[in-house]
Structure formats: structure tokens, C-alpha cells
Write a structure and sequence with these properties.
The chain folds into 2 domains: 1-46, Alpha-Beta Plaits; 51-223, Alkaline Phosphatase, subunit A (3-Layer(aba) Sandwich). By secondary structure, it is an alpha/beta fold. The protein contains 8 helices and 9 strands. It has helices spanning 4-17, 57-63, 74-77, 92-104, 117-123, 128-148, 199-208, 220-223, and strands at 26-29, 32-33, 40-41, 46-49, 67-71, 85-87, 109-113, 155-158, 179-182. It is globular. α3 (74-77) links the parallel β5 and β6. Helices cover 35% and strands 15% of the residues.
Length: 226
């Protein structure tokens, strides 16, 4: 066992080494506590990433004067490129609290939140009951989120990979990720189909702010009332 700051130092050294032709995208510090056979991850994870190699929505937004508010580990994943505000959140409750706070500040731009508990605590640990409780907790907070949204706001819920808590092992699982879109002024009951890429979300956000982005197919017109 080593102290937390020592772990961070090791990861920073590894980050410096893993550059060049075969550069590694991220070095992740994942602290844990416990005894053999019952280790558990703590909330002190830190990602040491490289800047996005190509055109990215976040800098495009911030360069045009829009806010890019990242909540949880999002900023570190993008090496803070284009991030205008990095809000700390170590669990789902804090992420939801920060999201509602950002909505209440009438942020004009992108609020990018990560609900880490679904992945870290319950998906990887294959804790089905914990996962169910986390879903119920998110459901219970939904009225607060909806109340904080303005008429023109658009909320998207998705994932970058599967992590089925009922599947054998502890790794990510290969499956379709959800895409749920909500807005007080948006069309309801629209089937957005199976999308080709997560870049469709980025393209939709870009179109919403009248910005150009090369990758992805926007579905903004599918959910817009006009």
C-alpha cells in the first residue's frame, strides 16, 4: 500500500514516459482501500490524459464564448481542453447537485456531467442491487433537474460503453448504449434509431449553437418543435 500522493506521482511519471509514436491516451490513478478479497475503489481517481488529437466540440464552444462546464472526471478526460469551469464531484449525488447548480446559474453553453457510481461502484463490482438503488436515486432527483431546466434547454443521457452488473467478470460489457433526450420545448416520443457514433451527440450540440463540426450526424431537427 502506498499513500495517495505517491500514487499520483507514479502516474505523472508514467504519463511522461508514455508519449511519442505509441502515446497512451490516458494513465488513470485508481486508489483503493480494504483488505485482500474485499478491496474497493475510493473517490480519489485522477485521469492523466493527452489533449484531444483532432477537432473537438469543447474548444469550439468556448472559443465562441459559450460556457463549457464539466462536472466530475470529464475535464481530466479531455485534458481540460476548452473547459471553462471544472466542478468537483466525487459521486452521483455530488454530480447531480452540481448539475442542478449549474442549471440554476442559467449557464449558456454545455453542462457535461459524469455519474461515476454506475460504472465505478456498481458496474465493475457487478453489484446489481447497488446499481438498482443508484437508478432509483437518479429517478428521485429527476424532478429537481427538470425544474431547473429552461424552455430551450436540451438534456441528453447516454454512456460511452456498457457495464452490465449481471455479466461475469469485472470489465466493461459490449452492448448498445442508451440515448435519451429531453427538453421542455422538445418533441416527445421520437425514435432516434440506432446511431452510428457518439459524435452524433456532438454534432447535435454544435448545430444547436450554430457551430460547425466535421464528425457526426445531427438529430436536432428530429427533436425540435420547429
Amino acid at each position: 500500500m502506498i499513500p495517495l500522493e505517491r500514487l499520483y506521482g507514479i502516474c505523472e511519471t508514467a504519463r511522461d514516459i508514455l508519449r511519442g509514436e505509441h502515446e497512451v491516451g490516458r494513465v488513470i490513478a485508481r486508489p483503493f482501500l480494504g483488505e485482500p478479497g474485499s478491496f474497493y475503489r475510493t473517490e480519489n481517481r485522477h485521469d492523466y490524459a493527452v489533449p484531444p488529437p483532432r477537432e473537438n466540440l469543447l474548444p469550439i464552444l468556448s472559443e465562441k464564448g459559450f460556457a463549457v462546464v464539466c462536472i466530475g472526471k470529464i475535464a481530466s478526460i479531455y485534458d481540460s481542453a476548452g473547459v471553462t469551469q471544472d466542478l468537483t464531484a466525487r459521486n452521483n449525488t455530488q454530480s447531480i447537485d452540481q448539475t442542478i447548480r449549474a442549471l440554476n446559474e442559467e449557464t449558456r453553453g454545455l453542462i457535461f456531467s459524469n455519474l461515476v457510481d454506475f460504472d465505478m461502484l456498481y458496474g465493475h463490482r457487478r453489484d446489481t442491487e447497488g446499481y438498482a438503488r443508484a437508478l432509483e436515486h437518479f429517478d428521485s432527483r429527476w424532478p429537481e433537474i427538470e425544474a431547473a431546466m429552461r424552455a430551450g434547454d436540451l438534456l441528453m443521457i447516454t454512456a460511452d460503453h456498457g457495464n452490465d452488473p449481471t455479466f461475469p467478470g469485472t470489465d466493461h460489457t459490449r452492448e448498445y448504449a442508451p440515448l435519451i433526450v429531453f427538453g421542455k420545448g422538445a418533441r416527445q416520443g421520437v425514435n432516434l434509431g440506432t446511431r452510428d457514433s457518439l459524435s452524433d451527440i456532438g454534432q447535435t450540440i454544435a448545430e444547436n449553437f450554430a457551430l460547425g463540426l466535421s464528425a457526426g450526424q445531427s438529430f436536432l431537427h428530429d427533436v425540435s418543435q420547429t
